[in-house]
Amino acid sequence: MVEVSEYEYEKVEEISNYLLERTKHRPKLGIICGSGLGGLADRLDEKDVFAYETIPHFPVSTVVGHSGCLVFGSIKGVSAVCMKGRFHPYEGYAAWKCAMPVRVMKLLGVNTLIVTNAAGGINATFGVGDIMVIRDHINFPGLSGTNPLVGPNDERWGSRFPPLNKAYDPQLIKLVESCAAELGLSDIMREGVYCMVGGPSYETVAEIRALHILGADAVGMSTVNEVIFAHHCHMRVIGLSLITNKCVMTWDSKDEANHEEVLQTGKSRAKDLENLVSLIVERCKQQLFDEKSVNY
Ligand code: HPA
């Protein structure tokens, strides 16, 4: 028997009401910070910070490099809410639990979500420190039934069978690329397909070769559950992967993926990624205040 969401609409509403009663911010923009990328949250002005353990019904994050709080504030004059620390299936959380905070964001008023993550580079042309704007994803656990939408569907969020062919907003992908050019980051800017795997062990050589054949450019252990919830409830989504390591493609390679390298690359590129996100927000300000959400 598959475990289905314990977060009915009213419970998520309770969480968002708790927060709205305690902050003056009314965010239109949501940001989810990946491993080592929590600095994005620190950039917000006029912050209100809620540690996850103080928010009713909220899960708590258990990973080093994810400190675990929801930060409200403003960036370039836009009201935003930022998850500093996210939830991963490898921590033992169901897909719907990992994605639940996105629905809290929806009820807070968020209509655009920027999701960041650390990822291993599979595409041979990608280097450590490159930033990949996500064009599309492969949900490896999802293809075999581990999708956050499994279970009864509440139409107040979205439809039973949402399409995902435009989950990553094509217009916003163009905007990301033009912002990267404006910042002189075109040399490290890539576009590609993110593949989610369950982790926490890194992939074998055979697995990476298989993902390569399937069309994945980068691999990681997060993001797609959140993106599915976001698109389901009609948010616009931008996905950004920081390539923190090159995936090992041959058995005689001396390289090995490790979490320290992932965090270290996050630190050294964090500023570029933060600058990129700030400029994206500045450039799509108008859209963020536009109440229309995406149709599917
Ligand atoms: N594999 C999976 N997840 C990751 C990797 C990787 O190589 N790097 C950062 N997150």
Task: Explain this structure.
The protein has 296 residues and is α/β, with parallel strands linked by helices. It has one domain: Nucleoside phosphorylase domain (Rossmann fold, 3-Layer(aba) Sandwich), CATH 3.40.50. The chain has 9 helices and 9 strands. It has a 5-stranded mixed barrel. α6 links the parallel β7 and β8. The chain is globular. Hypoxanthine binds next to β5, β8 and β9.
β content, as a range?
A: 15-25%
- Going by helix content, strand content and strand pairing, the class is alpha/beta
Give the CATH superfamily: Nucleoside phosphorylase domain
Spatially, the strands of the biggest sheet line up as: 5-8-7-6-9
Q: What name is given to the CATH topology?
A: Rossmann fold
How do the helices and strands follow one another from N- to C-terminus? HEHEEEHEEHHEHEHEHH
Alpha carbon gyration radius = 18 Å
Number of domains: 1
Unreliable residue runs: none
